[in-house]
Amino acid sequence: MFSLFRADPPPADDTRPLALPDGSEVPVRWVRDPRARRLRLLVTERGVRLTVPVRASERSAHAFLHEQREWLAQTLAKRPPPTAVASLERDVTEAIPLRGEMLPLRWATGRYARAERDGDALVLQLPERASATAAKRALKEFYLAQARSDVGRWLPKYLPSLPAPPASLRLRPLASLWGSLGPRNDLSLDLSLVLGRASAFEYVLVHELCHLHERNHSRRFWRHVESHWPQWRDERTYLHGEGLQLKAQLRGLIL
Fold first, then answer.
1. What average pLDDT does this structure show over 33-49?
2. Is 74 helix (H, G, I), strand (E, B) or coil?
3. I need a labelling partner for 44 at 20 to 30 A (CA). Which of 52, 86, 89, 172 fits?
4. What CA–CA distance (Å, rounded) separates 181 from 210?
5. What is the rounded distance in angstroms from the CA atom of residue 133 to the CA atom of residue 76?
């Protein structure tokens, strides 16, 4: 077995080809992360990323990649095709994703950049000479408000069963994770969850709250999840299938 702790770390961030079992190659972005405790391979909407602990050797990283080639090939084969909503373009984009559906989008000219619901549609108002960045910023604020509203509606029913409440809550785009709970009980959730179905978003919230009971994925942890969200497997399957597309949609619309 190769040691994960040696004195010859790989470069901080570079891209290298990896040969898959069928002979094809895929670029893998190697990222040395001082916070990482183990080698980790992720497939995101931006490609394949290998996270390497600071003291891990190149040999152990190459061995890890070799062991994961079959899994990687299967995961890449399951990736959904690119979404139809690739970017936000003024007077061109006609709908945006929200809670698993496409919300009609109307463009308007006004003094300030803002996005507001108008019945069953979203009105995105911009000054006449507003930049594309202003439009994306307004849409991001709309998504943040919608996500905060959802979490604010769901959270109170779970708080009485928790050993402690989250110290803080942050909603932001996450590259690969759906959520995380920090050592000081700081809760982070991926903003792209508000684009998908609401039940999957609530499941991720429940999942992270259950880490207040167990800081692991042990059987005890999953029993807590099961008690609050018996259908968690359906939501996990949904996120496995639609997750990359949701993240890509958010990235194209607000970043």
1. 81
2. helix
3. 89
4. 10
5. 31
Task: Take residue 226 and report the two structure tokens written for it.
Answer: 């099961």
Cα–Cα distance measured from residue 133 to residue 165, given in angstroms and rounded to the nearest whole number = 36
Written as one letter, the residue type at 81 is: P
Task: End-to-end CA distance of the chain: give it in Å, rounded.
Answer: 42
Helix H or strand E encompassing 210: helix 198-210
Compute the distance between CA of residue 27 and CA of residue 41 in angstroms, rounded to an integer.
12
pLDDT, position 10:
42
DSSP one-letter string for 82-133: PPS-----TTT--EEEETTEEEEEEEEE-SS-EEEEETTEEEEEE-TT--HH
Q: Residue 249: exposed, middle, or buried by beta-carbon count in 10 A (0-12, 13-18, 19+)?
A: buried
Complete edge-to-edge strand list for the sheet that includes strand 168-172: 168-172, 186-190, 179-181
| Residues 206-220 as b or e (16 or more Cβ within 10 Å = b) | bbbbbbbeeeeeeee
* Measured distance CA(243)–CA(43) in Å, rounded: 11
What domains does the chain contain, in order, with CATH numbers? 13-77 (no CATH), 153-254 (3.30.2010.10)
Q: What is the mean pLDDT of residues 218-237?
A: 95
* Confidence (pTM): 0.75
